[in-house]
Amino acid sequence: MKIYTKTGDRGETGLIGGRRISKGDPRIVAYGSVDELNSSMGVIISLLSSKNGQLFSDVIEILTGIQSDLFVIGSDLADPRYHEENQHQQNAQRLQKNMVEKLEESIDKFETELDPITFFILPGGSTEAAQMHLTRTVARRIETQVTLLAKNQKINPIILAYLNRLSDLLFVTARLVNKRKGVKDIPWRIRSIEDKLMKT
Fold first, then answer.
1. Higher-scoring residue by pLDDT: 121, 86
2. Which of 54, 111, 143, 147 is the most exposed place for a label (fewest CB within 10 A)?
3. Looking at the domain assignment, is residue 5 inside a domain?
């Protein structure tokens, strides 16, 4: 089977159910960005596995599960036939509430390992944490894209809750990775104030 089909050469693609739409449609943009998010998650997992697999085995397991969830989200968004009253009759692969709950459980678990945060932090620290922050911003962007999509087209509302919680998890996990590696979070400071203090 060839990887290329030539069916999208005119800027259109097919949705689940057979309808063809422009590749610039908000629905395509949204689930295409989910693929980007999944790929970015793969970079995180690769970084964590390459040097500190044992130290981060619990994080790797959770992130790998999230990658599978993201495939479900992509499939969910690619199927425009969502209706709350009959979604189970369509045999479609849909994101479920328990998937959001798993993210919340992971957030709660990881936060017990962290000191309370009393300041804004800059994205960074270790390479792994920096990549997590970058991935977090991708999740936030997709949340915005899906929100805009939902204004005009029917989608599974659980997707928005999942993306919101995922960005929270990535923030917490970035801090967790820094702590386990012995790297301090970088506090945000107003430079103008610091400059004045340095001059006095």
1. 121
2. 54
3. no
